[in-house]
Specification:
With 338 residues, the protein is mainly alpha-helical. It contains 15 helices and six strands.
């Protein structure tokens, strides 16, 4: 809920799925009509929890939140709304007194627990019997967490990376992080950025340089990330991203895959093979490393706004035109819905 447009796009998606309407039918509805349909559908639920993340636009967001009558306790259940924001004043225009829960920086122990929980399969013994290598890993993990300012997103991302890449030690990851940090210090265009964005940028740089991927897939991985940062949506269709990389994938497979040579004469088989390859070699790896989030229920991707900003800084605005042109082709008539 970072903007009114994003919030209304989510409402449109919800209304379309619940009503069973087509995208063409949804285009005929004004924002006000979508808003009223959304509230009408909410009234049919005895219990629900709505989460509006990053609702920082306190001048525009509140007027599009659900009717107050939709919230509260009913005879059969409870209706609740959770709104996250970095601005205290976001709730004031709503005319309600919220229960405010302030979330600060996690403690060192909490951040370490998060890192190791995300790094599934890794363990760092705290016993006195730990050997020198394990003690070195413990020390590196503690330093990595502190150098990230215990930023939850960055800790979670590097934890996911460690889980996906057991061959990379935490000592090595810390070294790569510091190399990215040194590069950040040398960039003149980053001085005005929020410290959280800088931390996520270093994390992104570290991970892109470290993810084990065949070099011919690297440009497509970057293209997919940049496309997602341009769309900045919570409902990026799986099919759109596979279609976006389809032409490049066909060229790669033509040169490197015996299976492609068997499938290319049958367009149906060829298209499925390309989509499966992009999913396995690009999208799944981005998901495992927590650079993209995948929703199993809707089969769509989303991207965190800090990752979005870090990607823009990493790849630069000079790539907008070419990636945007490919997005238009991939989405076809549905581009403006994306």
């Amino acid at each position: 809920a970072a903007s009114k447009d994003q919030l209304l796009a989510d409402y449109r998606q919800f209304v379309m799925e619940r009503r069973g309407w087509s995208s063409e039918e949804m285009k005929k509805l004004s924002d006000d009509e979508v808003y009223h349909h959304f509230n009408s559908l909410l009234s049919g639920f005895s219990s629900f929890l709505l989460v509006f993340d990053n609702a920082d636009d306190h001048m525009r967001i509140p007027q599009w939140l659900p009717y107050h009558s939709s919230l509260g306790t009913t005879g059969a259940g409870r209706r609740r709304m959770v709104l996250t924001s970095r601005k205290d004043q976001v709730w004031r225009p709503m005319g309600v007194t919220p229960c405010i829960v302030r979330i600060g920086v996690p403690s060192a122990a909490e951040a370490m627990e998060m890192l190791m929980r995300r790094a599934a399969g890794r363990s760092l013994s705290s016993s006195s019997g730990a050997d020198d290598d394990e003690k070195g890993e413990q020390k590196a993990a503690a330093e990595l967490i502190e150098e990230k300012g215990r930023l939850t997103l960055a800790v979670s991302q590097l934890g996911a990376f460690l889980g996906a890449h057991p061959e990379v030690s935490i000592v090595e990851l810390l070294s790569r992080w510091r190399a990215g940090q040194k590069e950040l210090m040398e960039r003149n265009d980053m001085s005005s950025e929020d410290p959280s964005v800088k931390t996520v940028w270093i994390t992104l740089k570290t991970m892109l340089d470290s993810i084990v991927i065949d070099p011919w897939w690297q440009p497509m991985m970057e293209k997919v990330l940049f496309a997602c940062s341009l769309l900045a949506s919570d409902h990026i269709r799986h099919e759109l991203l596979t279609e976006l990389g389809s032409s490049e994938a066909r060229q790669i497979l033509e040169e490197r895959s015996d299976r492609w040579r068997e499938a290319k004469d049958d367009e149906g088989k060829a298209s499925r093979f390309v989509a499966e390859t992009i999913e396995r070699d690009v999208l799944v790896k981005l998901g495992h490393n927590n650079l993209l989030n995948f929703d199993d229920d809707t089969q769509t991707y989303s991207i965190h706004r800090l990752v979005q900003r870090a990607i823009e800084l990493q790849f630069g605005l000079n790539r907008v035109d070419s990636v945007l042109a490919d997005l238009v082709i991939a989405a076809g008539d549905d581009f403006w819905d994306e």
